[in-house]
Amino acid sequence: MANSPSQALQQFTQNYIDLWQQQAHHAAKSSELYGIPSPCIVDTQDLAVFWQPIRPNTHTLNIVEEVINLTIHPAAHQFYGTQYAGDMTAMHKTLPITLIQVWNDDDFSRLEQNIIAHLTMQKRLKRRPSIFIASTDDDTKLVAIDNQTGNVILENLIDYQNDILAEDLSTFLLNLKPIAQSLLSGV
């Protein structure tokens, strides 16, 4: 079992890449990322990019900490500082999710801005701070790291009824089942 969020993310990513190799016989593919530069791109064909993760990603969330005046949970730093990669689809039990990843340096800047906006809104609403790590099919729910406990939660943005999905990020990532979503949709 991986003992750090970074190792768990690398293991999940490898499982995701292996799934693409086994099912499609090529690198992970994305049409959504076509035309957006990245060090991850290994090929471009038919309005899609094929990608591999690039490590290490040396970015940190230190700017977010300075702007918000809040210490970010170490798991969030590791999650967003491990690699450059495309977003990856997965299942957590019966919940389909898309892990948010950093595609390039500009993407990381946008990510910082979005995390700052998210934390600012939580502060205004007097909610516990969290750092999002995945989206769901429901725009009112996201997967996040509870910044105080390190629990991975399903955060409801409307009524703030949160469900704990895992005690920590490593456990969460190691229990995800990768899904090559583009293969399912024929992209």
Please tell me about this protein's structure.
This protein is α+β, with helices and mostly antiparallel strands. It has one domain (5-181): SMI1/KNR4-like, CATH 3.40.1580.20. 35% of the residues lie in helices and 25% in strands. The chain has helices at 5-24, 62-68, 74-81, 105-124, 169-174, 181-185; strands at residues 28-30, 41-45, 48-51, 88-92, 95-99, 130-136, 141-146, 152-156, 163-166, 177-178. Helix 2 packs parallel to helix 4. The longest helix has 20 residues, at 5-24. The protein is globular, with a radius of gyration of 16 Å. The N and C termini lie far apart (33 Å).
How are the secondary structure elements laid out?
Elements: H1 5-24, E1 28-30, E2 41-45, E3 48-51, H2 62-68, H3 74-81, E4 88-92, E5 95-99, H4 105-124, E6 130-136, E7 141-146, E8 152-156, E9 163-166, H5 169-174, E10 177-178, H6 181-185
Helix pairs in contact: 2-4
Keywords:
single chain; 187 residues; alpha+beta; SMI1/KNR4-like; three-stranded antiparallel beta sheet; 6 helices; membrane; Syd_sf; Protein Syd; cell inner membrane; Syd
